[in-house]
Amino acid sequence: MPFSLMVCFKVVQEYERAVIFRLGRLLSGGAKGPGIFFILPCIDAYARVDLRTRTYDIPPQEVLTKDSVTVSVDAVVYYRVSNATVSIANVENAHHSTRLLAQTTLRNIMGQRPLHEILSERESISQHMKALLDEATDSWGINVERVEIKDVRLPVQLQRAMAAEAEAAREARAKVIAAEGEQKASRALREASEVIGDSPAALQLRYLQTLNTISAEKNSTIVFPLPIDMLTYFMKAKEASKHSEK
C-alpha cells in the first residue's frame, strides 16, 4: 500500500505543469499543477512542462541582403510556454521547433532589407521578427516575449570602404564650412575697410591696436607698418628737389 501511494501521487513545482494522458487520450481539465496530483499506475502517463522563460541565442547567420551584401547576423529570442497542453499535444518538440523557426525567420527578414536599413533600424526589425514568430508559434503553445538583434558583422573590405566614404564626406563638409567662413570674413573685412576709409585716423588707431596685440605675445621681432601717406610725402619732396636742381 505505501509503495502504491508513492507511485500514484506526483508533485510538480510552481513553475511546472503536468499534462496527463489516460489510455492514450488527453485527460480533460487541462494541465495539472502546481502541487500534488493523482495518476493511475499503468493507465496514466504524464509529461512535465516548464513554464519559465527560456533564452535562445541564435547562431550567426550568413545572409545576403537585398542590395547583394553578405553580412553575418545573430540575435537573442526570449520565449516561454503559455499553454502546456497545446505544447505537448500539437507539436513533437516545441522548443526545438521554435529555435529552428527563429533561425529561418531571421534569415528571411534580413534577406528582404538593404544594408542601411539593417544597420539603422534594428528595433523595427526586432519587433517585426517578434510578431512573425509569435504568430507562427501560437498554435504550439509558445509565447515569444522579446527578440533582440545582437550584432551585424560586415566584411572587412566593406568596413574599409564605408570608413573611406565617411571620411570623404567629413572632409567635404569641412571644406564647405571653411568656404562659408571665408565668405563671411570677406564681407566683414569689406565693411571694415569702408568704415576705415571714411576716417583716416581710424587706420592709424588700427595700427596701434595691432602693435599692442603683437607686444602682448612677447615676440622678439615687431614689424611696424608704415603708412602709405608718409611714403607718398617723401616721394613728392624728392621729386620737387630734382625739379629745382634742373
TrEMBL record:
Judging by the UniProt lineage, the source's domain of life is Eukaryota
> Which cell locations does it reside in?
Membrane
Does the record's keyword annotation contain Kinase? no
Q: Could you identify this protein by its name?
A: Band 7 domain-containing protein
Q: Which GO terms describe its cellular component?
A: plasma membrane
Its family remark reads: Belongs to the band 7/mec-2 family.
**Family matches, as PANTHER family:** BAND 7 PROTEIN-RELATED, PODOCIN
- Pfam family name, one: Band_7
Predominant location category: membrane
Q: What is the lineage of its organism?
A: Eukaryota, Metazoa, Ecdysozoa, Arthropoda, Hexapoda
What organism does the UniProt record list as the source? Phaedon cochleariae
Location of the Band domain: 7-166
What are the protein's UniProt keywords? Membrane
